[in-house]
What does this fold into?
Amino acid sequence: MSLRRVMVALVLTLAAVVAEAPAARAQQQAGTLVVQVTAEPPGLDMTASPATAIQTTIHYNVQENLVKLDKHGKLVPWLAERWYTTDNLNYTFFLKKGVRFHNGRETRAEDVKFVLERAMNPETKHPHRARYLGITSIIVKDDYTVTLTLKAIDSNFLLTMSRPGSVIYPREAVDSLKTAPVGTGPFVVSEWVRGDRLVLARNKDYHVKGLPHLDRIVYRFIPDPNSALAALRAGDIDVSPFGIGPENAPDLKKDPRFQVITGDTTNDVILAMNNAKAPFSDKRVRLAVTHAINKEEVLKGAMFGYGKILGSNVDPLNPYFVDMSKEKPYDPARAKKLLAEAGFPNGFDAVLKVAPQYYYTVRTGEVVVGQLAKVGIRVKIEQIEWGQWLGRVYCLPPCTTPEYDLTIIGHGEPWDINNYANPKYYFRWDNAEFQKLFKASEATLEDKKRQELYAKMQKTLADEAPVVWLYMHPRLVAAKKGVTGLWRDLPAMALDLSEVTWQK
It folds into this structure.
């Protein structure tokens, strides 16, 4: 071959390589999604911790339930293809056949029995054990049929079956739940590099035909919103579902490389007060704190106006939502009067503990501290690690007494008004009237009557002020153009990526 022909062949070969390289990168990119998450999970076991950092990565992606709360907030059959009840006390679930755990074994009714009995076992220390204590018997009729009997009507029973604590997993994989949970979901935990990333791989045997679309999900732990923004603009991440600062949303909307999705969530951001500790054991003090806070300024200062102001624990995605945002309005004069009546004419000192892994807690805290100072409540902000917050403030076992005055956090779980009926919950509010209303609502199936009870509960919460409900954290997602299938609203604290893909 002549030198000229060799040179021509070499040029053509190089051109082909150059042309194929972007196509190869695009093909690789099409199967992988890099997602920024604010906080690294403390573990991966949803039956051991209520941390939303676990739920957002694992729930519905790795582990699933008999029942699922879909993107519209509706309960739909999932691992159970259907259920049946005639008296709302005996529920028979018919499992979908052919569903396999990630270890290859088929899911059976005995697995449902094991999971629920383990949730009820006090030695397991399940974070939501109380939700399962109404189950009096679990009868396996065959490999795909199981009947659960309740001792009393529970209007939220099916919702409980959809919650993170009710995911179905195999008995033989219990010991691996914390680091490598086995489930039936569209993805399998592939790798966890502490402090850096969590990687999920496609479950090729997933029971929903045609899903998932992605081959791989890489969660990157980036708590700082500015760092998350820089990573997005540099192309190091594809999606920021929770961590982009709201002040950056307008510029991102103008950038043709990105899309911004805004919606509602069930994440209620609150200023919690330790009701078991003076002076917050006095309702007048709690009301004074409430009246001292200008929630509109908080929303503007912390979230640049994104989100919705709240006045109780029930969020706008809940069908029983009543707008209580104006029930206890901003009134610093009223706050000072209440403080004087409670014996604090010159105010008092307190400490606000926040976890900087969730940027909004610090921003919100800075605004709130300035407002409380105007009525004489002198608050010092103390930033602590998330693990310390869970252990000392939220008071996970072996903690017995919460160690805090004030804290700010978002409560993302839907239909979680039950927390206020639990006197052992970390804000230690014990109100017999509210507990009675909640118990009645749980035993009421008639929708109108239940709606009335929820309205009364919301009014009681506003009047008693166990915490200050600040705002609903907005659904604010920044993603590269071409990413499709992301949920607009978040009716559950789950980042379901099963239908996400890259637009061709």
Observations:
- The mean pLDDT is 93.
- The chain has 13 helices and 21 strands.
- Residues 118 and 124 are 7 Å apart (CA to CA).
- Residues 63-176 form a domain with the Dipeptide-binding Protein; domain 1 fold (CATH 3.90.76.10).
